[in-house]
Hints:
Blueprint: E1 5-9, H1 26-39, E2 43-48, H2 64-70, H3 80-93, H4 95-107, E3 111-116, H5 127-136, E4 145-146, E5 151-154, E6 159-162, H6 192-204, E7 214-215, H7 218-227, H8 231-234, H9 236-255, H10 270-277, H11 283-309, H12 315-352, H13 357-404, H14 421-430, E8 437-440, E9 447-449, E10 456-459, E11 467-468, E12 481-485, E13 491-495, E14 503-504
Parallel strand pairs: 1-2, 2-3, 3-4, 6-8, 7-11, 8-10
Antiparallel strand pairs: 1-12, 5-6, 9-10, 12-13, 13-14
Amino acid sequence: MNGTVTLIVSDLHLGAEASLDDFYADEDFADFLRYHAAQHPRLHLVINGDWIDFLQIDPYPEKRARREDLEEVYPLRMTEDQAVAAAERTMLRHPLFFQALREFLAEKPTRRITVLRGNHDIELAFPAVQARLRLELGSPPGDRLAFPPVCYFERETGLYVEHGCQYDPWNAFHRFDDPFLDRKRRALETPFGSVVVKTFWNRVESEFPYIDKIRPMADSVTAILVQRPTYLLLKFDYFVDMVLFAWIENLRDLLARRPRRALPPPEGTPENAARQLWRRRYKLGRLTGLVLLAILVQFVLMGIKLWTVDAHLRGGVAWEMSRQLGDRFLLEVAGAFAAIVLGRLVRFVMWQAGVKPVVRTVVYRLMVLAAAGLFFTAVVRMFWLPVGIALSAYLVWDATRTLRGKPLAAKNPLERRPLDPELTAALALLERADIRTVVFGHTHGPLEVDPVPGKRFINSGTWVKVVDVRNVREEPTELNTYVLVGADGDAHLMCWRGTLPARRYAA
Length: 507
């Protein structure tokens, strides 16, 4: 636009906690901005979501020592004031980064920045957070520092940029443009993925600092099982917290009195088309339904078994036996949860009494292990048949794929079946005549594909170290990837190597 070159970066994940911060490229980023500023007189920087990692910043730093000592859960949401404080703490930890942005805007009026929100920095929806960032960057006018609620679209070059979390059902928001649960806009929505970060990954990272850098996330659990087979049993209470908080948040979502809906983008615009592709299904609600269905199926199978074993059993007797089994199951599950609650009470009392941390930890973890044993015994006893059927079906499926030599991933992302959700959405957007390039972030997997001549989809990747076993590529995995869009709209995935000039990602 008017000879402007656009740079797009995403998923920087700047943090304020030393133990959880994933961004260590402050000097590289400053060099990156200086290099491109010297090359192009008109420059536009787009930060495409997950810039400040509010999910891994403690809104109550004064309680952090106690929280780490007692392994407490991070608060699931921040108030507006806490989000501002979290942003300020991030600025203090990364002064060089924010100085580079400030100088980028101050040196020439032909430079501008657009900041899009992602699932890790949905707090950018708070006006006070935007105001504080604007102040930190030298109070530029709105046309030089903008905070669009959803996406950036440049009609002249056909460039469409969005973070991409809305195509991931675990991290999608009911209303990404207005993500509040109350009409006064004080409480933010917390999708399931954010609950997992707050209740599980933030606590696990103290012992596995790399664990949330593995893609796909399921392989993170595999890594834990291989390296410490007893870890997930001894930390069973983390899963309990995750499930309970996730269901509570899902219920809040469903019962929320959200702000009155603003007018949607006009029909026929790329913004409106993207909304139609958002995966706004409540995955957790579906999961709850499947759990209840599994329980119902199990009781039906159990009733059939009782009638088959003794055809003389009357319906009342069969029902009574089923009820006794169900009562025993519920009692054992309740006992498992009660053991965790009691363990936490005992640990807190010992903490107040000044008992050594190693003693507190051993006592509490043994009680958690007992709770885990009780829970899994109850589940296996009640659901041994469907569990056995599911396990057998999985082994048969896996053996079939092994014998056929079928790869788990295709190097060409367009040949994968099913396609990744983000790629499916991008292909749908690229069918529009007014869109030439679609850029997403979110997955941390850098990618550049041309589904048809003249159309391009790019995932801008991340500046965080990631081990991605899902996206197999011909090119080596590079750090510090970004998108360079020329004044003519030609876009390429690039990587910044610090000591070397910028180069094409596929070069």
